[in-house]
Design brief:
This protein has 653 residues and is α/β, with parallel strands linked by helices. It has 3 domains: 5-229, Rossmann fold, CATH 3.40.50; 235-302, no CATH class; 310-410 and 433-465 and 514-647, Glycosidases (TIM Barrel), CATH 3.20.20. Helix content is 41%, strand content 19%. The strands form 5 sheets. Strands 14, 15, 16, 17, 18, 22, 23, 24, 25 and 26 form a 10-stranded mixed sheet that branches. α5 links the parallel β3 and β4. α7 runs antiparallel to α8 and α9 (246-253) packs antiparallel against α10 (259-273). The relative contact order is 0.08.
Amino acid sequence: MRPLLPALMLLVPLMASAAEHDVVILRPNKYLADNPRTASEVTGYFNTARNILAAAGLRHHTIDEAEAVDGGIPADEFLLCPYNPSMPPEVIAAVGRFLDVGGHGLFCFLLEEPLRSRIGIGGGDYTPAGEGKLFAALHATGDAPEGMPQQVRQESWNAFLLRSVDPDKARVAMEWLAADGQTNSGAALVMSHEAAWLGHILTGGDLIGKAQMLLAIVGHWRPAVWEQGVQAALDPDLGFRHAATLEDLRKLSQGGAAEAGVSQMVTDLEALKQQVGRAPAWEIIRKGRELRAQAESLYLGSLPTRADAMRGAWVVGVNGCGDWGWDKTARVARDNGLTDLFVRIAWAGRASYPSEVLHSRLEGDEDPVAAGIAACHRYGLRYHAWFINLNWRTPPQELIDQYGAKGLWQFGPDGKPGIMEGGDRVYWLNPSEPEVVALQAAMMAEVAGNYAVDGVHFDYIRYENYNGSYGERDRQRFERWAQVEVEDWPGDVLPRKGETPEGPLHGKFCEWRCEQVSDVVQAVHSAVRAARPDCEISAAVYPSWPYHRKIVGQDWAWWLKEGWIDFVCPMVYDAPGYYDRHIDRVARLRAAAGDKPFMAGLGSWLHPSARTVAEAIVADRELGADGFLLFSYTPELGNDILPELRRTVFRGQ
């Protein structure tokens, strides 16, 4: 696949693409509609792909499947399918027509027939990475297109391993390389004369390597993108929040530790510009991207820092971060400036510790909660036990039946136990039930009493929007509370929907729901304080105040005022593109919290790099946030983002 391109690159001026976009991304609408629980995960895959395209300087946009079928896929754009399983037949046909007229694309992970056979890949097997981390990197072969980096860090947790590649149609451009740097698991990237296929999704990390990899793939069929890549890599406009240009960065760094580094970087960039037309485009792009990464690092080092009341992270796995185990999880957190870990230990009605209140997930004598507390305290970290309170979602059938017989689940407006989410019936506990209140108090107090936890943490301590709390017992309790008789239940208490007006008692009903949730928080506070007086109590809450108070019944400002929680952790999960919304939310949250501690929860997975996380931290500090929690503690966060935060906005504490 290597011939011709070098000559084209060096001897012929590259023409800019006439199309408005270089890449069109196909959104898997049918799959998302059929699998609503995966929406957040799939959105993450697509955001990662967009971040890589942006780093490569590739202009891109997204279309729905209906647009692809009805209007066709733009033939002058490169098609990217970051994660499109179960592609409907009509969409497969639209992709086929796109290829028929000379279109090209990259398909990631799962691909349907007849597209598989068309590009020359046979059957395969879904394969976990395992302890050997079989899919740590992508390694270029002799059949890789020009400009392909020799190796790209990938760290896939699984992959689709091919049993065969049709040699008459395709070649293996990259192979899987394990963490040991030697074990080869076979084809990772296959390229035919029409399209490319990658054996997993595009993961985060190694943004420079992945950007060059995508340029090599797209540039194999569309050489003009190399010129765009060069222009993007050498662009003096940085786009940083507090330094939009190189000149801004130079001014920001004046008098600081980064001043000399910025000056040298500017000199190196000017020297690199002189190499355009002499060196291969991919070499210019690689060096240019490295200089931009250096600029970002110097910029971060120039941002202000301060001490925080808390620098924490939510840990989804009860055994620590990924497959690290607790010692490494706690050590990396401590070394990178974190002070607190919030560890999920109970969800869907089951405990990851020995319990007399909940069903336990454990087998044998294991106790990951005790292990986590010991590791955290060994490294000077505080351990907060994180509970999923009312949203049990899909508990075991035994619990569905047991709690259903007692009438403890929330009822939907359809009068049935359980509420509908995306076509699925899921189960939320009803906070208006005294037995539910007692269960929540016992659940959290048990852990506070049995373990040396530094805190207990509420999550999903709310209603699911307006979807629940419409059972007959809810009606009776609401009528007593409001001293009214509801003639049309639940119509009189429902919000406006379409042409149906808001029920006349909707406002009062929302206030009643707030009190039900608050009763749970108050009961937990009393029980936990009795079990361990110095145990902190906190809550992860929705970010839009006061809107979410009404819609989900979460009156956390009242909880703070009454002292039922010690600090609040609003989940202000905004991608960098929503910076203005983020600022507005944090300002409102700070005002609502008054003089009580407020820790801003940041969705680090929405950020392409440590830079935008750091910019949010700087902004939130200026607005009065006392500390931060990052969602969530993953190997990517620990390897790529936390070290940069520690070196910059977390330095000095």
